Write a sequence for this structure.
């Protein structure tokens, strides 16, 4: 009991510190007189990542009108616009883009503080947090959770999930923010003391706009990609992905013309740039890939490119929920082989 009281005291101190940091942050929404809450911050993040009020509303199970009203209320409280709206497009303003990463940090610290409190309340690790980086990985995660629930029908609430950016993955795993992560294998290349399970290995397609000269082709040789503008996340966002793509293109026999995009915040935003014919994109040849009618998908011939998705976790972890989750992932992986 003495140890438990000591742990509770330590947790209370950490929560007070976190609250202090949130209250006095230099972020504009923390200034005196602002009433922006965590819920609105989550709404803002969802709209920023999907660039769609409708899709963001579906993620939070509210109407599109309610989502628009909440964002408008947040903009009024802050005193500046977060999004530039036209009839067919939503885009982050410079202020909104600047605010986004800070808001993500605030929400993440809040969620971690709440999770720590829940764990202390239960006096045992009754759940794990599994992170993923994009929609393709989310589909695999859903299958693993379904298998886990079959193996543990009385413990359906043991797994929490969180979508993260490429930049968050390395730091998050090194600082034990996540129990496991599902992401492209290239992102784990420089992280030490982890174990991985290959969930998927697929060939790549080249996504091009329907207005592209090669849009009517079904295939394209790797050598033909040499002169194309290839959309790629900016190096400071995902250096491992850039390095892998550069290496693969060179092995295919050409020097790629990468167009680095520092505003790619989601898979949907990435696909929108292809639809607008801003460039072409490497996409996994997977039935789980969301397809757009405005994009042609060409099979790349004579290429070493692969799209690999791994489940990764820190070595020597004994959490029984994590071990069962890994076992469920193995079952899902074996069922696909």
């Amino acid at each position: 009991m003495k140890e438990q009281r000591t742990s509770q005291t330590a947790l209370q101190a950490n929560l007070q510190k976190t609250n202090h940091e949130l209250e006095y942050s230099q972020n504009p929404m923390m200034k005196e007189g602002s009433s922006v809450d965590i819920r609105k911050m989550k709404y803002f993040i969802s709209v920023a990542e999907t660039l769609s009020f409708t899709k963001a509303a579906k993620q939070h199970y509210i109407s599109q009108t309610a989502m628009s009203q909440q964002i408008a209320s947040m903009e009024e409280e802050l005193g500046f616009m977060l999004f530039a709206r036209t009839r067919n497009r939503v885009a982050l303003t410079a202020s909104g883009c600047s605010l986004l990463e800070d808001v993500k940090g605030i929400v993440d610290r809040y969620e971690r503080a709440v999770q720590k409190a829940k764990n202390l309340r239960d006096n045992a690790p009754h759940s794990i947090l599994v992170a993923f980086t994009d929609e393709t990985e989310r589909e695999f995660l859903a299958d693993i959770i379904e298998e886990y629930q079959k193996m543990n029908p009385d413990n359906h609430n043991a797994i929490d999930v969180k979508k993260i950016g490429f930049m968050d993955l390395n730091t998050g795993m090194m600082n034990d923010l996540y129990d496991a992560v599902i992401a492209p294998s290239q992102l784990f290349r420089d992280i030490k003391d982890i174990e991985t399970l290959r969930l998927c290995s697929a060939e790549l397609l080249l996504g091009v706009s329907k207005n592209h000269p090669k849009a009517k082709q079904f295939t394209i040789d790797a050598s033909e990609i040499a002169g194309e503008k290839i959309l790629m996340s900016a190096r400071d966002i995902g250096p491992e992905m850039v390095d892998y793509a550069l290496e693969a293109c060179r092995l295919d026999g050409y020097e790629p013309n990468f167009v680095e995009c520092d505003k790619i915040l989601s898979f949907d935003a990435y696909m929108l740039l292809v639809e607008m014919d801003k460039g072409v994109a490497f996409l996994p040849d997977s039935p789980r890939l969301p397809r757009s009618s405005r994009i042609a998908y060409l099979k790349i011939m004579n290429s070493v490119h692969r799209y690999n998705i791994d489940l990764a976790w820190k070595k020597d972890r004994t959490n029984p929920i994590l071990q069962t989750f890994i076992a469920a992932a193995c079952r899902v992986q074996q069922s696909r082989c």
